[in-house]
Each structure stands twice: as C-alpha cells, then as structure tokens.
Amino acid sequence: MEKITYKTIGTCAKTITFERDEENRIHNISFEGGCNGNLKAVSKLCEGMKAEEISAKLAGNLCGAKNTSCADQLAKAVMGA
Question: How many CB atoms sit inside 10 A of residue 34's CB?
Fold first, then answer.
C-alpha cells in the first residue's frame, strides 16, 4: 500500500493522511485538525471505497462561506490533486 499525506488548502484540517491499495481503494484516512467527530465519521464512511467513488460523493461539498471543505479536500487528495 502507498501512504499519502495531502496538505489541505482553505480548511481547518491541515493535512489528510491515507493509504491507497493496488485496486485504488482508500484506507486508514485521518485528518490533522478540523472537526474531530465529523471527520472521524467521514473517514469511517469512506474506508475501503475506490478513490473515484469518494470523489464523486464528496467533491464540491462546501463548509459555510468557504469555497471548499475537509470532505472536498479529501475528494481532491484521493484523486491526486
């Protein structure tokens, strides 16, 4: 498995760390910072999903008046942005 650390832009979470397997499935997602309970839930819900599935569900999700969110940043991270 490949371990990836993604530096977020425009969110309370500073980084997202996850592993990608040979089938492009995402595992062990963790956020540094952000809304702890919500991000733990997002991580659990996305566990084992393919990167494309995560991106399709979470891309474009916004947080308040921001033009992104931690979920949107996860969608970018898993797609290699």
Answer: 22
